[in-house]
Amino acid sequence: MNTSASIAASSPGGRLEKTHLRLGFVALSDAAPLVAAKLLEFGHAHGLTLELQRQPSWAAVRDKLLAGDLDAAHALYGLVYGVQLGLGGPRTDMAVLMVLNRNGQAVTLSNRLADALAEHGSLPKALATFGRKPVFAQTFPTGTHAMWLYYWLASQGVDPLRDIESVVIPPPQMVAALAEDKLDGLCVGEPWNALAEAQGVGTTVAYTSEVWPDHPEKVLACRRDFVDANPNATRALVQTMLEACRWLDGAGHREEIARWLARPDYIGIDEAAIAARLGVGARFAAVAPGIPPVRFFDDGAATYPHPFEGAWFLTQFERWGMIDARTDYAQIATRINQTQLYREAAARVNVAVPGEDVTRVLIDGEVWGSGTASAAYARRFPIRR
């Protein structure tokens, strides 16, 4: 199919407003959909050429999205919602186009803390042996890793606002900080937890899919004015990424993407560390039996941007004192998450849209789902601001 024909085919409502899109990503295994989309040029069938731009941190992703240097990005779910509310930077209307993956993050402790936990049997008792406030790292103040870390700590009886010091470190710098004894624990995406274990500087003690089974993690995000100005190009981008996510579920494709992600332009570490927790063969099941692995597609169930999932992050912002209590979390999430655009894109590439009636039980027994009232949810927790 020639370029003009593919442009027309991908946008019945008109030609694509842009055909060259700049996409940002951070060096993590869950950037796999973007890497697959680029290397296999899935965009060409939809009139798009993709340019991937690796970013050193999530703050850089945020800043370049806001400046217009990036058209869209692999982004932390909570980062997008934080920008929408103006937390830690300029308030800008944002858009979540689709979920890029579920699960695939973990909590890793220093060897000293892991040994103390094994000896004393509970995290509060282990931390009491330190004689100082322990230091835990996450990757962005409103990001998913901060929320998973705080939720996990609270489920273990540790107050993340009072009992620890929380610091922000970009994912690729986490393992070195742990090795240099600057950290007692961290929450980050793979492959950095796997690398910490491989280098003998840390022990993974919890997976975020234990905190919230099949939780949403990274999303494809952009500014809302980009969607408004480029609806056809945005829809074509979602179609492209859906095809990349579907490809990742194919036989042998996780092994292939692990090899590609190991390249210096993407993650730049040993392929084995990437593959170990990417759900390749039986490897992850052997490492973490019974724990849900990273999911990229799952017949379309993994990629749909449920607004109720976005609203959960708002309840956690309230819980930890980042925002005052509000009653419009569902409305905010409905504005951010582009469900109609997603449905249109999914229909064009034959991807089924899952049902809206979803309920999850989190690690502490709390239930969150499409029917959960969010107004008082944050105030139900015994550990909060």
Automatic annotation (TrEMBL):
Keyword presence, Nucleotidyltransferase: no
UniProt cross-references to InterPro entries, sorted A to Z: NrtA/CpmA_ABC-bd_dom (IPR044527)
Q: Which UniProt keywords apply?
A: Cell inner membrane, Cell membrane, Membrane, Signal, Transport
Where is it mostly found? Answer: membrane
Localization in the cell: Endomembrane system
> Which N-terminal residues, if any, form the signal peptide?
none
Q: Does the keyword Transport apply?
A: yes
Entries under Pfam families matching the protein: NMT1_2 (PF13379)
> Mind telling me which Gene3D superfamilies this protein's record contains?
Periplasmic binding protein-like II (3.40.190.10)
Q: Domain of life of the organism in this record?
A: Bacteria
Any one GO CC term of the record = endomembrane system
Q: What is this protein called?
A: ABC transporter substrate-binding protein
> Species name for this entry?
Paraburkholderia panacisoli
Q: What is the lineage of its organism?
A: Bacteria, Pseudomonadati, Pseudomonadota, Betaproteobacteria, Burkholderiales
